[in-house]
Amino acid sequence: MRRDTYAVIDLDALEHNLTLINNEIGKESVYAVVKANAYGHDLVTFSRALFDLGIRHFAVACLSEALTLYGEAKEIVEKSTVLIMGYTSDALLAEYREYPFVFTIFSLEQAMILNESPAKVNVEIKVNTGFNRLGKRPTEEYLREVTAIQGLKNVSVHGIFSHLRLAERGEDLRQIESFEIFCRSLPFSGFQKHICDSIGFIQYPEARFDMVRLGAILYGLVPDRQLNLGYRPVLSLYSEISQIIDVKKGEGISYDEQFSARNDMTIAVVPIGYGDGYKRSLSNQGVVVINGHSCPIVSTICMDQMTVDITGCEARPGSVVELIGPNTPVRTIATAARTNRNDIVVSLSSRIERRFMKNGSIVTTV
């Protein structure tokens, strides 16, 4: 162990979540979204676990993530589809067009660059049905442009996709309808279409189409209103107390004037901080659990350490501190940090050891 702070990746929970998904749609229709270091779970190791569980479609955000998979888990790339969902610059399209990735594009100019490849290049076309982040609007002009792309010798339209805003049901349904009309209006077939992410997958089963892009749900990161669906969190986060200090009334703790003891108190120093991706906004807001006791974070979270109030709590140096887990769910931490669930886990840095567990035993660490 490199440090007393570590994340546990529960492969049994992952398998459980995949079983629930498979019962709904079938694994062959799932793009497993492993962007942002697999939501902080470790891109390569987590992708291998998914591959072993039968996943053959992976989605990343950018070329660098696809290249990491290609360099460290080439066997997955060679036997799977790897979709780069985000933008790839013209220069990088030209440089990496011969790699076995599916590139997202939204212009004939991009396609012409890929058409210079000596071998066929698969692309997915992004359609902007209202998210207004990437892709072009579903116009007659864009229909003609996509048709021209499909007509290129060395470019094949592997798929067409869009993204729901998920702001309001009526708007979502309009996006879905607009996307369906666009796809039906194309004078060719043989492509896969998809518009649903994890939330869309749950809320709009009628819009699952050929594929769904599942990220948060794989990792058990579901909203409160969907907790009854049975998805289990895959990641938990722990540390251990490094020192216990008695603080007198009126004394300060850590930087600045963020905290002054109102009474005599006992604090524990925990070796995790914002340098590990633990949110600094949890200063004087967050709670950890030690030996079954909820202990508030006091004063400013530092880069490498933080302090918690353990007054009245039975603890000693080496006691385990639960930072994310059964008693400290991600949704609660996200609320305290004024952010969303995904942000909490994707922020966890490489300095934190990941322990992949199955049947209660560590199978690998990274």
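Second entry:
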Amino acid sequence: MSSKEIIKLLEAEGFEHVSTRGDHYKMRRDGRSIIVPLGRDPLRMGTQKSILDAAGIDPKNLP
């Protein structure tokens, strides 16, 4: 997954853009903050897993 795909997925889950600083995109929902590095295609597997875990999204349920 690329940075853009992760951001679209998080937005679909109700996360909103809070700020951008350098190449990091900050999103928040219900007090839970997620930082997504921008311009990465693809994101490394460990980074993807960390973002999805922090967001409470099960990677098995992704299309």
